[in-house]
Write a structure and sequence with these properties.
The chain is α+β, with helices and mostly antiparallel strands. It has helices at residues 4-17, 65-68, 90-107; strands at 22-28, 31-37, 44-49, 54-61, 75-84.
Amino acid sequence: MLDDAEICEAVAVALTADGLKAESAYTGGGIWCVTIAEPTLPEAEWLCGMADTNWGGGLTHWESAEVYGEAEGEALQLLYTDVASDSQDVAAIAGALARAVRAWRTAHGNFS
């Protein structure tokens, strides 16, 4: 059975193989996540993880509030999947996150 760090690393590798720029990241307090770069917004990335019932994430920016109208570090957009947070199925997790990110990009004019 994979631990959280191993799952996040494996998901990041699978997402990268699928053409997305992804990394696993330790956020502190025993919490691991997967970051996915968002090239359509400067200084923003998807922070994805298993903090809820299912895998999901938030598009988080690291710019000032003047740029996006939200406080620095606030999620601009949320994404949801139907993959349970305790899933060990790396392909299902990566596939669901990739589909959600690409759906957001398509809806917002980036067809990558």
